Automatic annotation (TrEMBL):
One of its GO terms (biological process) is carbohydrate metabolic process. The chain crosses the membrane at residues 31-57. This is Glycoside hydrolase 35 catalytic domain-containing protein. The keyword Transmembrane helix applies. Residues 70-112 form the Glycoside hydrolase 35 catalytic domain. It comes from the Eukaryota. Keywords: Membrane, Transmembrane, Transmembrane helix. GO terms for molecular function: hydrolase activity, hydrolyzing O-glycosyl compounds.
Length: 112
């Protein structure tokens, strides 16, 4: 009996609930807050785990100083320390080991 008084026979409960969901202003606020939390969470994960895309947001430069005859990396003098790796003479399973050893020896450029 009470149901008949609350709801007119022309509109079903599902349609009324659908109309309320679409027009409820709190729903937009809730969705916006959830979206902002999701974006914030993703940014925190990217920063914590060293995102490879963060280099897009940093300004890096490389130039040649012709007056002093040096390379400039991010405005500071930079010296190449190069080595060579003949990949066809080294089995593939040792490549990473050799690269890490070269880096430990102070090389910052590898010629292949």
């Amino acid at each position: 009996m009470k149901e008949e008084l609350l709801y007119s026979p022309k509109i079903s409960k599902e349609k009324e609930l659908e109309f309320i969901r679409q027009t409820d202003p709190r729903l937009r606020v809730i969705l916006l807050v959830r979206l902002l939390l999701l974006v914030g969470f993703i940014l925190v994960l990217l920063v914590l785990f060293g995102c490879p895309f963060l280099w897009l947001f940093t300004s890096r430069s490389f130039s040649i100083d012709t007056k002093n005859g040096t390379f400039l990396k991010d405005g500071a003098p930079f010296r190449y320390v190069s080595g060579s790796l003949h990949y066809f003479r080294i089995p593939q399973i040792y490549w990473m080991d050799r690269l890490l050893k070269a880096k430990a020896a102070g090389l910052n450029v590898i010629q292949m």
